[in-house]
Structures are given as structure tokens and as C-alpha cells.
Amino acid sequence: MPMNATHPENPEPTAPDRPAEAPVFTSFVAVGDSFTEGMSDLLPDGSYRGWADLLATRLAARTPGFRYANLAVRGKLIGQIADEQAAPAAALGADLVTLVGGLNDVLRPKCDVGLVCDRLAETAERLAPSCRQLVLMRSPGRRGPVLERFRPRMERLFGFVDELAERHGALVVDLFGAEVLGDSRLWAEDRLHLNAEGHRRVAEAVWQALGLPAESDWRRPLPPAVRPGWATRRSSDLRFAREHLGPWIGRRLTGRSSGDGRAGAHFSTALGEAYFVTPAADPPGCVTGWQRWAAAPAADGTSDSGRSS
What we know:
InterPro entries: GDSL_Rv0518-like (IPR053140), SGNH_hydro (IPR013830), SGNH_hydro_sf (IPR036514). The chain is of the alpha/beta class. It has helices at 34-37, 50-62, 78-84, 86-92, 103-106, 113-127, 145-168, 196-209, 230-254; strands at 27-32, 67-70, 96-100, 133-138, 171-174, 267-268, 273-274, 277-278, 291-292.
């Protein structure tokens, strides 16, 4: 009996391996807290840039007509992210959505980690069907004794992030496991947020996780540093306590948040909805200079603000 072409003894010739084409994303929505808002990658005008803006700029440079919305707000707990950001983000119907949240919860003195995971799951379930690719993260952590106290909670949260990713086909960017992001030189003076170089590395990490060609080794350790003297360290600790730790504790004791009264960069409180921005020039400059995207009218006269094909 003649052998067919799929028989193992008569394998069909295979074409040589070719590099996979880099994915194309035409729109991106970022959801979360201060980490995604961009603290503390401070620009000269006093605004924050951060990894999400950096990623959006790079994606826009390779995709004409690219659209972006950052809905993240500093200080938000996962319940607030679920209640305030998930629905507006899903309504935009972006190709790419990033969700990072829950760390503000687990770093509080009292925290129900199970409830945090439930609200994170609720948010992911709202966002995943609205986009082509959902990205979750295991947030970075600065090395030090304070963070060690909360490590068991963080590890439980990040373990659940992995479960969510498997459930929804999401990507996970493991920043917590990256030793270089524990280096204090990648953190701002407040010791809670990454500085400009830290955010640049996170943007590169997400870029690579999306299957885009690497531009740098974001895991590369910083050069060895000379340890500051005792007096310098003591002065730095006192300044940190006065300018950052004290106010942070005060907000916790009074139930206030640094995000009170704030909305995401691309959320209209007047209209109660999120909106896209798009580069105002080519090549795209800093996101703060982008213009609001005007949706093209659909055949029935309404605006087509959903995901592009």
C-alpha cells in the first residue's frame, strides 16, 4: 500500500524556520495605581511619564494611527481599580491592556489577601474579553527590611497573578523576580516608586514580553557602587522619614490617599468616560504632547470607538 505524505516514514519536507513576525498593536490601555501612572519618573513640567507612557511611545513609532489611554491613579486599592477603571478601560476595546494592582493593599497593616485576589480576578474577568492581549505583572520590590515583612503576602498575590494569567491567556511580566529591580539606585527618594531608569527597564521588559525585538538587556545589573558613609546614609534616612514616610503614615492613619480627587490622565470626569490620545506628530514625542483621538463616525452616525480590526 502506498504511503501517504503524512506517514512518519515519508515525512513531508518542512520549510526552514523563519523568525516569527513581531505582533502589531494599534491601541493600548493601562490600568492600575502609581506604578502605572508613572511615579516617580518626573518630567520638567512636574508631570510623570513612566513605563506605560514609554511603552506607548515605542508602540506608536511602529504603528501609524496608534491610540493610548492611561487610566491609572496613584494610591488606588484593587477594589477602587475594579470599580473605577475596569469598565471604562473595557469600553475602549483596545488591542493591548495592562493590569497591575493589589500591591497597595498588601502593603497595608491589615489586609485580607483573599479579598484582594477576588477583586483582582473580577477586574481581569472584565478586561480580558475586551482586548486581544491582557498583560499582568508581578510588581517589583526594593530590597530592604521593610519589604521583607510583607513578602509572604506579596508572594501569595503574585502566585494568584500566575493563576489568573493561565485562566485568561494573559502574559505575566515577572518584575519581582528580577534582581536588578531590587537595586536602590533604580528607586526614587521616596523608596516606594521607581525612578526614570527603573521605569525604562520596566518598559523594555513589557516590550520583550510582547514578543517585540529587544533593544537592551533590562535585567543587566548596575555597575558596583561605593557604599555611602554612615553620615550620608543617616541624613538620607532622616530626609526620607520627614518628607515621605511621615506623610505616608499620616494618610494611612486618617484614611486618606494620595489619589483622592484625582482621575486618570485620559479619563473625563465631566463625561464619565475614558478616551484615547494619539501622536500629534511623526515621530511621536512624549505622550503629554499627544492629542485627543477623534473617533471616526460609523455608518449609523455614531462614533466607532471600539477596537480596530
